Amino acid sequence: MDRKPRLRLLGAEVDRITPAEMLAFAASCVRQGRRAIVANHNAHSLYLAPRDAAMRALYAQADLIEIDSVPMILWGKLLGHQVSRDHRCNYLDFRGAFWDMAVGEGWRVFHLGCKPGVGEAAREAIARRHPGITLGLRHGYFDVNGPENDAVLAEIAAFKPDIVLVGMSMPRQEAWIAANLERLPNAVIYPIGAAFDYEAGMVATPPRWTGRLGIEWLYRLFCEPRRLFARYVLEPWALVPAMFGDLARAPRFRRAPHAPLTTLQRPAP
Question: Is 253 inside a domain boundary?
Fold first, then answer.
């Protein structure tokens, strides 16, 4: 994959990659037996990362950082960056292509997260759409320090995954990956939040047209107002200082340098 320079948006660095480019990168890493992290940024992560050192450590080690937000893309376009809706990478948008590739390439995928029983329901739903998947599961309710964590890592290693999906919500999932990275197998690692809750039908899946219009957050807020009110209504205000920083650096709004002043010529006496 042709790696482009990262963009700096709203205080964070992100990659201008399409879902197809991201999946091609993952396939290349699996073929090489290489460990890699594919992280993502949205408004919630932009709020959390400056406040959580472990989360920042994950992004510092990430091989790719997806833009998981249409508003971020629209903001980047306003600033004059070469970015479009094609660069939005959200699990619910690329899941069909991901699981098709997993079956076609024979990937072994391990999901860590969810409440007990939810992962099993998600696996059944995915298997109905994509027969032949190899998907291991472990719920996310464990002590991330000590013997329980050691047992989880041993279970993942024994499965020999090509892909590890970590769905334990932000910032817990990012902190866990960063803390345990050297003990994880050579696999492509994705923090994916509540993706399997959607797969299991525990949470209503937003219609894909809401994602294309950039109002998926509004659908989710309508479905879970108590849980998501602070995330979608209050947290974005913390990004205002970063917006001013973006404006100061933006290609579109950066002022051209002044032409050099010339010495005024006095008329000859």
Answer: no
Residue 150 lies in a domain: yes
Contact status, residue 14 vs residue 246, Cβ threshold 8 Å = no
Tokens of 162: 């090509």
Judged by average pLDDT, the poorest of 77-91, 137-151, 190-204, 248-262 is: 248-262
What whole-number distance in Å separates Cα of residue 121 and Cα of residue 220?
A: 21
What does R_g of the chain's alpha carbons equal in angstroms? 22
For residues 79 and 243, the answer to whether their CB atoms sit within 8 Å is no
pTM of the model: 0.88
Q: Is the pLDDT of residue 268 over 80?
A: no
DSSP state of 263: P
- What CA–CA distance (Å, rounded) separates 191 from 17? 17
Task: Please report which confidence band the pLDDT of residue 40 belongs to, taking 50, 70 and 90 as the band edges.
Answer: very high
- In terms of Cβ atoms closer than 10 Å to its own Cβ (0-12, 13-18, 19+), residue 215 is middle
Q: How many CB atoms lie within 10 A of CB 43?
A: 19
The count of domains in the chain is 1
What DSSP letter does each residue of 4-29 carry, written as one string? PPPEEETTEEE----HHHHHHHHHHH
Residue 157, number of CB atoms within 10 A of its CB: 13
| Predicted pLDDT of residue 241 | 94
Q: Is residue 27 part of a domain?
A: yes
Residue 266 lies in a domain: no
The predicted-structure confidence for 58-102, as pLDDT tens digits, reads as follows: 999 999 999 999 999 999 999 999 999 999 999 988 999 999 999
Q: What is the residue range of 38's domain?
A: 11-239
